[in-house]
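Let's practice the habit of predicting before peeking. Look at the sequence and jot down your guess about where helices and strands might fall. Then scroll down.
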Amino acid sequence: MLAHCLAEGGREVREAVGDAMTGPAPAPPADDAEVEGERKELQAFGQLPRAEADAAWDETWAAARRDGERMLKRTLAVVG
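Done guessing? Here is the structure:
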């Protein structure tokens, strides 16, 4: 999706993506209520402990940033 937007969206889209890739990472989604329970029980229902969820968010954002920067560079090389 991002590659298509970069290729078809024009300069404004490329600049917005560039700003997003160089700006600060967004904060992880806030969890309104910390779920109580044993780790196995939480994981059985797809709930990670807060520290693990935050770490997963950071890893996902870092990977998205790397991919976005790579796509942006590739697009800029083509469109100039």
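How did you do? The longest helix spans residues 50-79.
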